[in-house]
Amino acid sequence: MDKAEGKPAAKTGAGLEGVVAAESSIGDVDGVNGVLIYQGLDIHDLAEHSTFEETVFLLWHGRLPGRAELDGLRAELAANQQLPAEVSELMRRFPAGAEPMDALRTAVSALAFYDAGSRDLSREGALRTATKLTARLPVVVATFERLRNGKEPVEPRPDLNIASNFLHMLSGEEPSERVARIFDVCLILHADHELNASTFTSRVIAGTLADMYGAVTGAIAALSGPLHGGANTNVMKMLLEIGEPERAEAWLREALASKKKVMGFGHRVYKTEDPRSVWLRKFSRELGEARGETRWIEILERLRELMFAEKKLYPNVDYYSGSAYYLMGIPLDLFTPIFAVSRISGWTGHILEQYANNRLIRPRAEYVGPRGVPYVPIEER
Ligand code: CMC
User: How far is CA 313 from CA 55, 241, 277, 304, 305, in A?
Assistant: First the structure.
């Protein structure tokens, strides 16, 4: 169609498939070769050697930090963990039966009231907000978990990293070194994934020059859906429903026959194995073996073989993460909020990038409705 006529220049596939909608140096997904990079660094190298805090710095600044810079970021994060008293009070009034993603979305939105710098979109101002959000999201999730169970929130500890602190705030106990490291790597693996639905949402909101709290609130809503971050919880529900490895095949055949989407499989971009699932599979097996509970990984592996044979589909990031979190004793409905606790780093990285080089994101729709419809007065309809 002709742009001069004010009509869309090109029609895209449903769901914007294949559309390049922004330039970004934050992360890249090579879906053919199964490669994921953050600011040029391979996810496998980061999972092997890095920490979540170091990854946060990388996503925001485009390079790994020096020792003093990393210490500085850690100190900033620790100094910003405390929730404003008003938000803690507000959270006490959330219904205990609320979805944790709804609680997170509402609390993050409310955090803006108590941040006088929320509308400072300069690089320094936005970095300050990004630091507050990254420090506070884990505290919000853990606070909600405690309150809904009738328990007092556990104070965040400034001496712990984000991964250990979160697990500590959930249970009141410091995790073992190994579990803390596994969780830290899970946070690294979920930190960014290019223009996924929630990140795109955050950039669209930031592109109007709305504040970062608004952009992150919208991103949380987008992440909550079962086709995006909500899949990890549903994978674990599926495993619990299947129960035993011997039942996996019959369950899957029935699901495919009734044209059900099997959670944790398929991806818009990856046409091969998602590199993150390699790590999560390893963790799921390791934690299962450590707890003498290997049936989840056995079911997962059986389903994986069958799905490949039947549909040529590979597992995505949500396939193994749920069972790993479950084996850490984390409630199912916190899996998606944990995704947000990590992805806040990528969202804020993208929002910083959007603010730095902004143009309003405003695509066109191809109008497929009627034209020239006469207005009929209500008495004559
Ligand atoms: N189970 C069964 N069939 C599937 C699945 C699945 N999980 N995923 C894709 N297919 C089939 C689909 O039915 C379609 O077949 P056909 O061409 O015969 O109609 C074909 O594969 C293409 O699927 P699509 O739904 O058009 O692909 P999409 O790019 O629009 O959707 C997806 C990608 C991830 C939403 C989809 O694969 C899905 O719904 N998966 C299950 C939910 C899930 O695991 N989501 C997590 C995504 S990764 C992490 C994240 O983003 O948070």
Answer: 30, 21, 13, 8, 10
Q: Please name which of 187, 217, 213 lies closest in space to residue 104, comparing C-alpha atoms.
A: 217
Residue 96: burial class (beta carbons within 10 Å; 0-12, 13-18, 19+): exposed
Closest CA to ligand 1's atom 45: 227
Helix (H) or strand (E) holding 170: helix 162-171
Q: What is the pLDDT of residue 13?
A: 78
Q: Which residues of the chain have pLDDT under 50?
A: 1-4
| Lining residues, ligand 1, CB within 6 Å | 15, 196, 227-229, 231, 261-268, 311, 313, 316-318
Phi/psi of residue 29, each to 5°? -115, 120
Token pair in block for residue 54: 């170091």
d(CA 81, CA 333): 23
- Is there a contact between 108 and 140 (Cβ–Cβ < 8 Å)? yes
| Number of Cβ atoms within 10 Å of the Cβ of 31 | 15
pTM over 0.90: yes
Q: What is the pLDDT of residue 5?
A: 54
The predicted structure's pLDDT at residue 108:
98
Is the Cβ–Cβ distance between 272 and 34 less than 8 Å?
yes
Domains of the chain: 27-227+345-356 (1.10.580.10), 231-327 (1.10.230.10)
Contacts of range 215-218, beta carbons closer than 8 Å, 24 or more positions apart: 215/347, 215/351, 216/108, 216/133, 216/344, 216/347, 216/348, 216/351, 217/105, 217/108, 217/109
Query: Looking at 267, 274, 333, 350, which residue is catalytic?
Result: 267
Q: Is 267 a catalytic residue?
A: yes
What per-residue confidence (pLDDT) applies to 1? 47
Q: How far apart are CA 145 and CA 233, in angstroms?
A: 16
